[in-house]
Amino acid sequence: MQIFNTMTRKKEDFIPQEPGVYRIYVCGPTVYNYIHIGNARPMIVFDTLRRYLEYLGNKVLYVSNITDIDDKLIKKGQEDGTTMQEVARKFEAEYIKDSEGLNVKAPTVRPRATEHIGEIIKIVKDLVESGHAYVAHNGDVYFRVKSDPGYGKLSHLNLDDLESGNRELRSQMDDDLKEDPADFAVWKAAKPGEPSWNSPWGQGRPGWHIECSAMARKHLGKTIDLHAGGQDLIFPHHENEIAQSECANGCTFSHYWMHNGFLNINNQSCKNSLERLYTCRDNLDFAIRNAHGTDTALTEKCEEARKKFKTAMDDDLNTPDALAAIFEFVKDINTMSDAADKATLEKAAATFDELTGVLGLMYNRKAEEAPDEVKQLVEERAAAKKAKDFARADALRAKITELGWNVMDTAKGPQLTKL
């Protein structure tokens, strides 16, 4: 499999340090509000990557954090007249609820920043002792960007260009806390009314970037296989993570970097595509229950669809082509299902669930068998229609609906689906 590595700006073979085991860290949300559709994109993109790696038989250690200490959380708590922790727990629960609604798998570990203060302080202490960070006179601790000759390698920003901008920033600085405007906080001194923890530099709280470095190191090790997130995190967040992690650990932080693009919405085409998939699965369930053919040619189409799907996904998660392979398979199913035997249809259904399951689309749902009472009403309704007693047929449809089922008249006879 190949992925586009942001660090090298090219597609590369995605090879883990340990064969068959992928260590992946994906930046999670700052839980100060409900997530929006743009937040959902990285959740779905990297869940798809994880599912595909597992589909290929790999073990995936997938860590995605919860940032539950941040300026936005503190401000939200003050505005709502509550605590930062209460805000964080409320919106963390809402985030998990939305994740489940999107059929995103729970991460192997979902660490909270506030539960890793000790690990954060340890990294900050190492950075200070090695000269990569310094303590300001108010108790803030800043990373010394100029101490890292590799700074800018992910975002491909030139430090000389940063310097020219920093001269203007320097003239606008209200105090002398930083040696250089490009330096960033790894620890912030406590302010009145804000949550804080004891540290070698006094009461304070972690900076945003340092949290992910600490949680990744604890749960995945000093060097991971892949770090991922939205492209808006490339600079400064991920660039700063690399600097502080590699200066503290003395080794490569992540071998690969992957970032999803911004979301362009075309709601109508998305809606229609999903309806096609659900209709196909409903039709397959019906065809299996009423199979009467003898043809097995659809079996070959199953293998063909699987091959095309895998080829697309191996190419940097080319989901448009992967979906095209599924839709082509749907067309084959619709064309060939009437003549196929039951075993072949069951194989087609299993293949369909397999491929859509990798994309998290179908929840691998199985058809629910209608109770005998509903089946009897369907038979009575069919008889009423045959006798042209349409008033009774409509009344029977209403009863079927009350029992939680929808009956649809098709060329192959009445078809039941659960409401």
Summarize this entry quickly.
This protein is an alpha/beta fold and 419 residues long. It has helices at residues 37-55, 71-80, 84-101, 117-129, 159-172, 208-220, 234-249, 267-289, 298-314, 319-336, 342-358, 372-386, 390-402, and strands at 2-5, 10-13, 21-26, 59-64, 133-135, 141-143, 184-189, 204-206, 224-230, 254-260, 405-410, 413-418.
Can you give a write-up of this model?
Helix content is 49%, strand content 15%. It is an alpha/beta fold and 419 residues long. Strands 4-3-9-10 form a 4-stranded parallel sheet, with helices on both faces. The chain has a 4-stranded antiparallel sheet with strand order 5-6-7-8. A hairpin with a 4-residue loop joins strand 1 (2-5) and strand 2. The longest helix is centred in the middle third of the chain and has 23 residues, at 267-289. The model is unreliable at 164-174 and 265-272 (pLDDT under 50).
